[in-house]
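#onboarding

Welcome to the new folks! Below is a worked example of what a typical request in this channel looks like: someone posts a single protein sequence, and someone else replies with the predicted structure as tokens. Don't worry about understanding the tokens yet, we'll cover that in week two.

Example request:
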Amino acid sequence: MPATGKHRRKKSGPLSRGILAAGAGGAVLALPLIGATGAHAAEPASPAAKSAAVTRSAPAAVAKDSPKTYTVVSGDNLAKIATAKKIKGGWQKLYKDNRDVIGDNPGLIVPGMKLTLGAKASGTAGKPTAATHAQAETKPATKAAPAAEKAAASESTASGWAAPVENPTVTTQYHVAGASWASGYHTGSDFQAASGTSVRSIGPGTVVSAGWSGAYGNEIVIQHSDGMYSQYAHLSSLEVSAGQTVTGGQQIGLSGTTGNSTGPHLHFEVRTGPSYGSDVDPIAYLRSHGVSI
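Example response:
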């Protein structure tokens, strides 16, 4: 039979927030319950309840602190991954966070490569968080951040991806129909470019051909790291040759009006193969690599 006698409340001692509850089986110390009052404050928390409380709270902390990873597959590029994974800061942020894995060329990622998504922004495991540092460190860190972003922007122009001409203006869009073209439509995008304007490789790759090509006049075709090809036509001069390796933003020639051309401009194509007839939307391709057009 359980004891039915009344229990006297002991005076508050060092364990002022605990409650001692006695029963027939002896005395147990109930854990303090913040804000609990009356009879509910005296109910002891069982070991199972304590374990459940810990289990409920632990995953949230782990999920918040643990960065996610992504394994590169064939056909991937940083812009495509950043868009799919909704990376704030785009491919530039993704590259900055994984430069130690990717190396100096953001256009050269290979299948099987593991990229960290958002690790630098939230802090990595085992390292102190921003909250543990003194507030005095905030200003130096803020100054360092713009410097790093400026450097990253410079690198993207030198070795990442870029428009084929500076300050690009498209004068004839891709797939415009007309009898002027053998295919019945425009197979590339024409950029405004006076004769002698610098023409740049849009990304890292290898020159497949550089020379005369009939209606295209002087042209250059480059194969890029993702297997796609870019073509630059009607050039007045060529500055690269077949087999040469180029970087994004590198000058490869000067614009002109050679071949079947009505005036100075750059005819630019992106293809799935090196030859005519395998064209895709060149502006969409540039944008997929983070180039603003």
